[in-house]
Amino acid sequence: MAYADFTTAMMALFLCLWLTAQDQKIKDAVERAFRNPFSSVTKESVGLIPSKDASATFQQHGKFQSVSAVEMETMRHLSEDLSKLLKPDENVSTLRIDLTPEGLNINIFDRAHKPIFQPGTATFTDYGSWVFSTLGWEISRYSTFRLELEGHTESKTESGGDDHDQWDLSTDRANAARRILVENGVLMGQISKISGFADTVPMPGYAPTDEINRRVTVLLRLKESVDALTNTPDVDRPTTVPNDNSN
Fold this sequence. Notes:
Layout: H1 2-20, H2 24-35, E1 57-60, E2 63-66, H3 69-86, E3 95-100, E4 103-109, H4 126-139, E5 145-152, H5 166-183, E6 191-196, E7 215-222, H6 223-229
Parallel strand pairs: 5-6
Antiparallel strand pairs: 1-2, 3-4, 4-7, 5-7
């Protein structure tokens, strides 16, 4: 009996020494396993310790993505943090955050009762500046993300002048979002696409004329997702404009 106790103690010691030598991702995964041993990090998770050979995958419209359980958990944490910071009042629907197979999709709405931009311009209101500054500060904590910014408008006469139509306005607003995100810590190299879609991509389930379509969308992809899609043409989205890095 004494020998059995001794060998058990030695095995426990070796396990502790092994754990202390691992990186933080594995330590976090082991901690979650002990806290809730009967459920995985995500329903797509394929194991306790993520690896390139055993990672959760998603299939959507012929696009392949490889996202590990720990990376999905990082997105969930960021989503929760943003909800706490930017959704203090549930009655003000300024923000919508969706965890999708493509990544973390953040829609910031320019509502009449809580405007993000000055009407018909790409100039932020004080509230809009605060929202995007806070968003930039949070995203800057995760340098593994790649960002795609999209500007959208609703189908009605919102424009900044005779020669400044909805295409220009939506693109200018996406670029304005890029500038303020970079000013608040997001790396220039993290931003991979700036797009202006005018009124061509309304929110699902809403009429094209609904003001909810007036928005800026920030899609956060992981490096692995970007690499997996590099050689895959994006046939589901309208043509986009190149990233303009000028301030």
